[in-house]
Automatic annotation (TrEMBL):
Keywords: Bacterial flagellum biogenesis, Cell projection, Cilium, Flagellum, Periplasm, Signal
Task of the protein: Involved in the assembly process of the P-ring formation. It may associate with FlgF on the rod constituting a structure essential for the P-ring assembly or may act as a modulator protein for the P-ring assembly.
CC terms in the record's Gene Ontology section: periplasmic space
Keyword Signal: yes
Provenance organism: Thermosulfurimonas dismutans
Main location per the UniProt record: periplasm
Location(s), subcellular: Periplasm
Residue intervals of the SAF domain: 121-183
Alphabetized Pfam families for the sequence: ChapFlgA
Family under the similarity heading: Belongs to the FlgA family.
UniProt name for this protein: Flagella basal body P-ring formation protein FlgA
GO biological process: bacterial-type flagellum assembly
């Protein structure tokens, strides 16, 4: 083969490879000719909507405090399928959401959303200061929205949970009320004279006694039998009666 023919052959091969490469590039680029550009605003709206659908609280109480989106921006060709799934169970606090885009069954893009969700939950608060041992009434109780992620686990959400209860220690106005801060007031007081009921299948005996400690309904307390002068343990069944079981 002559040198000139060899050079022409090499040029033709090179041109063939160049044409093939150009075709591949054009084919790849053509898939993005009709593409949409997704910015942070799109993913913020998406995150807000999906979180609101999954959480049990009203949408107006849910607030997105922070949101990080990676990568940005994203070019998605028309006809791509969007799939959304949470990495963790949706909750108040930190949430991670993955948004996948597929074309012809092939993953072409993945966007990671990490957001912090806050929920304003109505909880029971004190409208005025209360002293230790005070009995709670509706006049000192109110409902106010507070951030759920900053609330203790035993916070009260219904004033009826606190009505008639006694506070264990003094609390200031505006304080969120917790179950651990209140208790049922005793219906029998220490040193109170009470009736002692002793029941069997065939007989009921009634004696007079003296409570040696405060007692709430259903509690077991120490009682002194005034006839025998002995201390016994009995269950509180009313505001003036205790019962001994045999």
């Amino acid at each position: 083969m002559k040198t000139g023919d060899f050079r022409i052959g090499r040029v033709l091969i090179f041109l063939g490879f160049l044409a093939l490469w150009s075709f591949i590039v054009l084919l790849w680029a053509s898939s993005f000719v009709h593409a949409k550009r997704l910015e942070e605003s799109y993913f913020r709206e998406l995150f807000q909507r999906v979180v609101a659908e999954r959480l049990p609280w009203p949408t107006e109480r849910i607030e997105i405090l922070r949101l990080a989106v990676e990568p940005l921006p994203v070019e998605i060709p028309d006809g791509a399928e969007e799939r959304i799934h949470f990495v963790n169970h949706p909750q108040a606090g930190s949430n991670t959401l993955l948004v996948d885009y597929l074309k012809d069954g092939r993953l072409i893009a993945r966007v990671r959303l990490v957001g912090y969700v806050e929920v304003l939950l109505p909880v029971v608060v004190l409208s005025r200061p209360v002293a230790r041992g005070a009995i709670l009434t509706k006049e000192v109780l109110a409902l106010e929205p507070r951030p759920l992620t900053r609330l203790p686990h035993d916070v009260l959400t219904d004033p009826s949970q606190a009505l008639g209860k006694r506070v264990k220690y003094s609390l200031s106005a505006g304080k969120v009320l917790r179950l651990s801060q209140i208790e049922k007031p005793p219906i029998i007081r220490r040193n109170q004279i009470v009736k002692i009921l002793a029941r069997t299948s065939y007989l009921t005996v009634v004696a007079k006694g003296q409570a040696r400690q405060d007692g709430r309904m259903g509690e077991i307390i120490r009682v002194r039998n005034l006839s025998s002068k002995k201390e016994i343990y009995a269950r509180v069944v009313s505001s003036d009666t205790v019962e001994v079981s045999f």
